Automatic annotation (TrEMBL):
One of its GO terms (molecular function) is vitamin transmembrane transporter activity. Belongs to the reduced folate carrier (RFC) transporter (TC 2.A.48) family. Coiled coil: none annotated. This is Thiamine transporter 2. It is found in: Membrane. It comes from Cardiocondyla obscurior. Pfam families: Folate_carrier (PF01770). PANTHER family: FOLATE TRANSPORTER, IP11787P-RELATED. Residues 204-224, 457-477 are annotated as: Disordered.
Amino acid sequence: MNWIKISCILCMFGCFKEFRPSESFVTDYLTGEWKNFTAEKVNDEIYPVATYSNLAMLILVFLITDFVRYKPIIILCGISGIITFLMIILGKTVLIMQIMEFFYGLFFSTEVAYYTYIYAKVDKKHYQEVTGHTKAATLFGRSMSGIVAQLTTSFDVLNYHQLNFITFSACCCATIWSFALPSVKQSIYFHRTSISDEEQGKGALDYHSRNSSSSQQSPSNDKNIKCCSSARSRMPLFHKVKNAYALLWKHFLQAYTNYPVVKWSLWWALATCGYMQVIAFIQLLWQTGVESGDKIYNGAVDFIYAIVGAVTVFCIGKVKLNWTLLGDTALSFFSLLEGAVLVGCSYSENIWLLYLGYIIFGVIYHTMVTVASFEVAKYISEDSYGLIFGVNTFFALLTQSLLMIVVVHVLKLDIRQQFFVYGSYFLVLALVYIVIGIINVVQHYRSGAGFHFWVSKDDKSSSTSDASNELPKRDSK
């Protein structure tokens, strides 16, 4: 099937998956007349379960995703969404809501299949395009979700409870649509049919040489590739798993022994931790700024946030800047701005300032995490995109779980105190990257490289080739 058709089918799934209008008002729904939970119960006993569930399932789901070849996990993503919103419609007790949050965490952990399926299905030369397609699809679905939620509630077409039926229907559509995805015959680690990877090829050749009755192999490269592919298809499960984990470990070391990858991935993981914590509890903070009888515009805010984020992400991909030099400064400045916004929100009781702060915070995060993702991509093997995405997300969730345990369960801070802590967290992150940036600038100055803030086409191609040439050097060691 044509790669564009595959991308379109996957993007339709992404749109349906992200079309969840009930989420714009989920806190008001849980604390309102339909469920009657207190804000403290939602904050302390219900919401944290999704984070712990996501953390517990992510690595397992990532490995199973590659082993079962993606499509079953994408279908599971849709099914877990169906269970989540069916339970939120029918559930009445805290225990049911906690079970619902478990499936909600599973729903998010299975998203790794959505973001990595395309790498196993299309040619490497289309990776950048299809990555943009999948990100755009999720932002489009989220923006449509926000505007539908706002219009239907503002004009009293639907209430918060009825919005859940739209979300439930969208999850059903996503699940049905996922069956249209073409099956994956090969995967990146457990079911490789190509031997473009040197180490993986050696594993297949070694097994073939131990078990083949032929005494000599042909020197032809085409015959070697055919022989290795055939050998891998006949390999028992144990050898497939062994070779898969060898390649996983190779890609992991190859990536995380590279300084730029570590630097950008560290910010990626830590910023994602703070971002997920903020979006999980932001509606509880908004409730403190709303007077009884006031109109709530959470859906409109989600719409603006998604649209502005999509535009800035698109623009940042077109601007050619020397992120090697400017990266640390940008990360420290925007982390400082995010921290200042969150600290300001922790003191503000004006709902419009809280809405504005959330939009600014979210747009900055999505813009800089996009920069981090394509900067990391410069220094890693194309086959390991999914692995790095999974590992960075795992460390983000691990940090988020620790932060939640301390803030919510140990210190038992109220919602405004929590956001003061989250703001301080980003201020500390900014301080770390200010120090890294100063060291980077001093080293750059001493090397005599000069300060070129804009990257020309020649510079870009040169830096890309230098980055790609690093990989064999590390392998040879």
